[in-house]
Sequence to fold (371 residues):
Amino acid sequence: MPFDDIAAVTAKKYVQPINRFMTDPKLLDPEIDLGDYSQKLWINTSWFGDPVYRQVYGFPCEYPTRILWYRKDLLNNDTEKKNFIKKYGYELAPPTNFLQLYNMAEFFTRDKGEKLAGETLKRNFYGIGISGKRHWAVIGEWLEYSQSFGGGPWAGTVDNNNDIIVNRPENVESLKAWVSLFRFAPPGCVDWYWDLKTTAFQKGKVAMALAWNDQAYEVENPKNSSVAGKMGYAVNPSKKFKMSHFGPWSWTVSAKSKNPEAAYLYMQWVRSKNIALKCAIEGAMPSRYSVYANPEVQKIPFMKATMEALPHAMTGPVHLPEWGAMCQELQLYLTKAHRQEMTPKEALDTIAIKWKDILKTNLVYPADAAK
Fold:
């Protein structure tokens, strides 16, 4: 179960709580070591309900987390380093803030026939890859920016009372910043989801992106990627708050299970330390501290950046059954903003009004620019 569906599947009683299994000495694995999970991330991934009487619905399956991908061969090229410092006045390095992200995206955007790291380009090259498709991908892409610019629950889209703050000034600023990067991205990215961003790296078309760590295996595979061994990874650049979009999944027990005790025993086994380690080595994103600490896992190129990103993982998802309907509106108007059909203010004000109709809660900020 993906984390953002927990409200919907629990409200419809598709899955059942596992609390009673966890307290049954006949079922509980004495070596399960639930303290090996980040409690904050586990609670926001697999628990639901009233904060005092919250039910546990599952164990973490894996923790996909977004980090910065970049072409380290380009950043380490002497000519590129000299040209960058001449143009911007500081050294070329993985960006740590949004001005640096913008500058680096601008710098590495080149036309066919220009030079890149001493070679003449046979096609256009782009400074950044962006997922702009009307899809969950566009939501995850923008939430990175809104969280960093303004912080708050679920990237500052609703507050703790479920009142609507998606059109707050910090979000308008963040959407302007995100939209400004499209000029340095491949034209087709307006219809990209994350897989196409990965493909662009494999084909050597882009210099950097904010991307899912679990897809980095594909750019490091020399059979499928022209940039294997040329990649670097870091925590995402930030403004006011460090952030990393967090897309975890949970193992859960179906409400219709005829053998829920057996299903629970399987969940414990598949999340046991040994099996979790094997899964990580084969390509899953770890959810246990002990797995991240394993020397073999530490050798995976992007795990260091992942470990640095996890403490800043965006938690507190919108635990609302209406989230599916809210997503549809958010996807639509974010795409209208980056396609220049609406200003960022108009898009976010329109989303706020649509959400008010869905949630029947209050607007904290006036939606005076809505179309």
Notes: Residues 3-64+249-312 form a domain with the D-Maltodextrin-Binding Protein; domain 2 fold (CATH 3.40.190.10).
